[in-house]
Specification:
By secondary structure, the protein is mainly alpha-helical. It has helices at about 5-20, 30-60, 65-80, 90-95, 100-110, 115-120, 130-140, 150-160, 175-185, 190-220, 230-255, 260-285, 290-295. It starts with 6 loop residues before the first helix and ends with a helix. The protein is built from 13 helices and no strands.
Length: about 300
């Protein structure tokens, strides 16, 4: 993911904008001012998202337009997509210290956009089959109605038990950019199909990484209950991915092949953001010893 002039400040500002626009509030006498300020940030967000989209549009246009071929192309991203098989995750599983693992997790928690909220925004006015699949996914994220099973609080529990203090001002801009891309795609209906692709590729590529993080937490002595978020996603997202591809992506492309490039763009945008995060994390954690760390992995 290329860096643009003023990128770091832009991502911090967009993170603050997203926090403001998604936080429930009450009417105020200054609502005209609020709308005007939001309009300015929507223009900034639009320029940012269009730059990210343009960076992957060529590759996305090469995706097949038939539903079976497109799903096969999409599934292949798990192996050949940007950021896959990054050496950071075997290192987290096998070698990271508790301090290094906590730094990594702090970045991840601070950049967490909230899959359940992104899903809720994305499904608005979609056709029945994709809408129902996203709804099933949302219900799983919500613990199927059980507060103790909600995925967001599970991650918050891990952060609290480890004493993490995630804050925007101490989060690398690449992690903020990932969250800002996901929020922008889900919140703007012109990117609804990009959001379907971005969310779907998370389900497809996250399980392997989650399993390695869970292995690292286990090695470091983190109790089973505290690391349940990663243990859960290492298994559950495999099922989610297969259903998402069959019930959301396939019928959308079958009904309208012109949607294929948009879904592909979203997937590639998300993967490029992830790859940039992993590279930045390695630089921060490994410094100039990156190759030493890499060569020491089994």
């Amino acid at each position: 993911m290329a860096r643009f002039p003023g990128e770091e400040q832009l991502q911090r500002s967009l993170a603050a904008f997203n926090e403001e626009r998604f936080t429930p509030g009450l009417p105020s006498a200054d609502w005209h001012r609020d709308v005007d300020r939001a309009a300015g940030w929507l223009h900034e967000e639009g320029e940012f998202l269009e730059a990210r989209r343009a960076a992957v549009a060529g590759r996305a246009a090469e995706a097949p337009r038939d539903a079976d071929g497109f799903v096969a192309w999409f599934e292949a991203l798990e192996q050949g997509g940007p950021g896959q098989d990054d050496p950071l995750f075997p290192w987290l599983a096998e070698r990271a210290t508790m301090a290094e693992m906590c730094w990594f997790l702090t970045q991840e928690v601070a950049g967490e956009a909230g899959f359940e909220d992104l899903s809720a925004l994305t499904q608005v006015k979609l056709p029945t089959r994709p809408k129902l699949e996203i709804a099933r996914n949302y219900w799983d994220e919500m613990g199927r109605g059980n507060p103790k099973g909600m995925h967001g609080p599970l991650l918050e529990t891990l952060a609290r038990r480890l004493g993490l203090e995630p804050r925007v001002e101490t989060t690398v801009w690449e992690s903020l950019a990932l969250a800002n891309v996901m929020a922008g795609l889900a919140a703007n209906r012109r990117y609804a199909y990009q959001s379907v692709g971005a969310l779907g590729v998370i389900e497809q590529t996250a399980p392997g990484r989650a399993a390695l993080v869970a292995a690292g937490l286990k090695r470091l002595g983190v109790p089973t209950g505290d690391r349940h978020y990663f243990d859960l996603h290492a298994v559950l997202d495999v099922k989610h991915s297969a259903a998402w591809n069959a019930e959301a992506i396939h019928p959308l492309v079958a009904a309208d092949p012109s949607l294929a490039p948009a879904i592909a763009e979203g997937a590639l945008m998300r993967l490029e953001c992830g790859a940039a995060c992993f590279a930045r994390y390695r630089r921060e954690l490994w410094g100039g010893a990156g190759e030493t760390h890499r060569s020491g992995l089994t």
